[in-house]
UniProtKB/TrEMBL annotation:
It holds the Pfam family DUF568. This is DOMON domain-containing protein. GO terms for cellular component: membrane. Its main location: membrane. Residues 59-184 form the DOMON domain. It is found in: Membrane. It comes from Gossypium gossypioides (Mexican cotton). Residues 1-24 form the signal peptide. Keywords: Electron transport, Membrane, Signal, Transport.
Length: 233
């Protein structure tokens, strides 16, 4: 009897929090700690007082950005993505998807680090369906301009990070930008190999409003929904 009541209460709480999670977007969770010491972050802040910075929901990643509209209705977007997870070998990817918040279709910037390499490599990659089907992921052009790309393995600060300036066509909506990030520990030349399938790796995508910093975390929605469903069934 008591346990039934508890279960019912749990389900009711789950359902009410579910509706909150799904219907509302999450406010910005500000960056903290060592990320604020990154030189590129300080420069971004120096450039414009509109720079925003948030802790991402997974992979110990933090993300800073600022942007402005150009005279051609494009968006010039500066981004800085960093993680503490990469030690001697690995890769850090960040990208945006014009259609959906998911990996396939993402236009990515990927930094690859191997031991004894003085400067890590950084390139653009177009992540097509073929990649998911097992084709090699090699550097390629993507359909917008990427400039000022910088990758730094900052041992002092403890972050591996990438800075870049993107010139985005109108197709990318800055009020609901699908962005994804990913970390892996296995590389083959310039090819990042499969990442782990931990929850953190699967949750690493969101729809971000660049103006307010609010986001909808897609991965967590699914996870939450699955949990509630399994409780109900
Ligand atoms: C920021 O700007 C100030 C004044 O222009 C300058 O003294 C300082 O070195 C700059 N800092 C960085 C990190 O660029
Ligand atoms: C940023 O700088 C602009 C121009 O100097 C100023 O008008 C604006 O109030 C500043 N915004 C903030 C949030 O400080
Ligand atoms: C920019 O977009 C606005 C509104 O969509 C449009 O009226 C204007 O003609 C566009 N300007 C250019 C240079 O494409
Ligand atoms: C990138 O891949 C997409 C399909 O996911 C394709 O539509 C697009 O043309 C490709 N871009 C480039 C520059 O190859
Ligand atoms: C990036 O490059 C563009 C043009 O090459 C330049 O106008 C812009 O100021 C640069 N941004 C930064 C943050 O260095
Ligand atoms: C951009 O996204 C916002 C928020 O989802 C939406 O209200 C707006 O209509 C979108 N704009 C375009 C041009 O699709």
């Amino acid at each position: 009897m008591q346990s039934f009541a508890l279960d019912t209460i749990f389900i009711l709480i789950s359902l009410s929090s579910l509706s909150i999670v799904v219907s509302s977007s999450k406010p910005l969770n500000p960056c903290n700690g060592d990320f604020l010491r990154i030189q590129a972050y300080k420069q971004m802040q120096n450039q414009t007082n509109t720079t925003q910075c948030k802790k991402l929901s997974s992979l110990q990643a933090q993300f800073a950005w600022n942007y402005h509209k150009t005279s051609h209705n494009q968006t010039q977007l500066n981004i800085l993505i960093g993680t503490k997870l990469i030690a001697s070998t690995g890769w850090l990817a960040w990208g945006i998807n014009p259609d959906l918040p998911r990996m396939v279709g993402t236009r990515a910037i990927i930094a690859v680090k191997v031991p004894n390499q003085i400067t890590p490599s950084v390139n653009t990659y177009n992540i097509t369906k073929d990649i998911q089907l097992g084709c090699k992921l090699q550097p390629s052009g993507i359909d917008f301009m990427v400039q000022n790309t910088t990758v730094v393995d900052d041992k002092d600060v403890g972050f591996f990070y990438v800075f870049a300036t993107l010139v985005l066509p109108q197709r990318y909506n800055v009020s609901s930008l699908n962005h994804v990030w990913q970390v892996g520990y296995c590389v083959d030349g310039l090819e990042p190999k499969m990442h782990e399938a931990s929850l953190g790796n699967l949750d690493s995508k969101e729809v971000l409003d660049l103006e307010t910093g609010d986001c909808q975390n897609i991965g967590q929605h699914r996870q939450h929904l699955r949990k509630v469903k399994s409780k109900l069934l």
